Amino acid sequence: MSYQPHPPFTLTTELEFNPIWLASLFTQANRVWVAYSGGVDSHVLLHALVSQITPEQRAKVAVIHVHHGLSPNADAWLDHCEQVCQALNVTFYAHKVDLKVQASVEDAARQARYQVFEDRLVADDVLLLAHHQGDQAETVMFRLARGTGTKGLAGMPAVRPLGDQGACLVRPLLSITKTQIEDYAQQYGLHWVEDESNQDERFSRNFLRQNVIPLMKTHFPNMEQSVSNMAQRVADDYEMLASLSAQHLSTVSNTHGGLDLNWLYQQPMPQRRFWLRQFVEQKGRSLTQAQCDSVLNMFAGVEDKQPEFVFADGRLMRHQNTLYVLPNELPVEYGALVIGQVKTRGFDQLQLIQGDGVELRARPLGAKLLMQNGQTRSLKKWLNDQQIPVWWREHLPYLFIQDELVAIANLWRHPDYGQLQFEWRPSKVLPFPNHH
């Protein structure tokens, strides 16, 4: 995105925003969204924001509320949020989601919520979330309990990209305590909703919030601030490390974003894990240490094998001993093509081929290709000779005319169809080394 806001967001415990930051935000952002559940944290964030901006800036503010349907009070919460937004004269949007719970209700609700955000926001939109210092400490403790690496110890980032449309997520209250938020709400007489699920200790975060963290604070009163400060230091160090890693990885990666496995396996095992993890994270995905070990074992085998490692965020595949990160679900459209035949020699005029006998089909198993020298070659051998990546072989456009295979993308033509114009530009979603 062209605009990405940076701290400092707030300068005082009374939640007074840095006026320079606010002016920059509303000048450069396309729209400023506030994620609003109706709870005290998001209510205070919304109130503090609209209280410190001009009517012209307020016209840029939009509130987004996600209705999960998990509570019998969810409809009442939606109504409450809409009424608050009407009173504040800001635009209100509500989205109802149908949760598909496979493991954790918490995780499913969070994933659905963030999917709504990503779907709604467009380029240069900024989303404000009300996570505070206590939430940051809770997040770090939760990750520690489950096992985490350096990136996990960095907690929630104050600023990060949101989705792939050029939007941005901002957490301006990470330096603000829960007490400061509640004091603000009392001072301005705000009314908010209470989510009864926050008291359910079957949820791991609630157990931490209600039992572990209060106990630790009896011995370490400044624990939340200390953990939050540590997370920020780790985040700063990790950002620098990631930047340096990216520079080095660019020297051992090809122009299609593939990592040289010969180089990777020359590194000592700890560095091998590190570089693999950094390579995958650069593609917007992540691997656990156990997954890293599985990948390294899988791709250490014979080069002519075609192993595939599937994980939650994508797939890892090898081509010519180079590792590629691919999406889990292949795009519906694999590229763009134009089919025609030369109408006038010497000129770029095409007459588009039409008719019932013209078809694009899936890869024809067992097909034979007629070469220019009159010899035939099996499609499988031709694909191997052309070094076509295995993930593309099923998705190349195979053109048939009257049930005869006459072209494969712009890679092969039947000798009898020399005037055939078959222009194909593969989708950039999938890497295609060796294609020109």
Automatic annotation (TrEMBL):
Catalytic activity field: cytidine(34) in tRNA(Ile2) + L-lysine + ATP = lysidine(34) in tRNA(Ile2) + AMP + diphosphate + H(+)
Residues annotated as domain Lysidine-tRNA(Ile) synthetase C-terminal: 358-424
GO cellular component, one term: cytoplasm
Domain remarks: The N-terminal region contains the highly conserved SGGXDS motif, predicted to be a P-loop motif involved in ATP binding.
Taxonomic lineage: Bacteria, Pseudomonadati, Pseudomonadota, Gammaproteobacteria, Oceanospirillales
Protein localization: Cytoplasm
Protein name: tRNA(Ile)-lysidine synthase
GO molecular function terms listed in the Swiss-Prot or TrEMBL record: ATP binding; tRNA(Ile)-lysidine synthase activity
Residues noted as binding ATP in the record, renumbered to the chain: S37, G38, G39, V40, D41, S42
Keywords per UniProt: ATP-binding, Cytoplasm, Ligase, Nucleotide-binding, tRNA processing
Chief location: cytoplasm
Residue ranges crossing the lipid bilayer per the database entry: none
Recorded family membership: Belongs to the tRNA(Ile)-lysidine synthase family.
GO biological process, one term: tRNA modification
EC numbers on record: 6.3.4.19
InterPro entries according to UniProt: Lysidine-tRNA-synth_C (IPR012796), Rossmann-like_a/b/a_fold (IPR014729), TilS/TtcA_N (IPR011063), tRNA_Ile_lys_synt (IPR012094), tRNA_Ile_lys_synt_N (IPR012795)
Top EC class of this enzyme: ligase
Biological role stated in the UniProt entry: Ligates lysine onto the cytidine present at position 34 of the AUA codon-specific tRNA(Ile) that contains the anticodon CAU, in an ATP-dependent manner. Cytidine is converted to lysidine, thus changing the amino acid specificity of the tRNA from methionine to isoleucine.
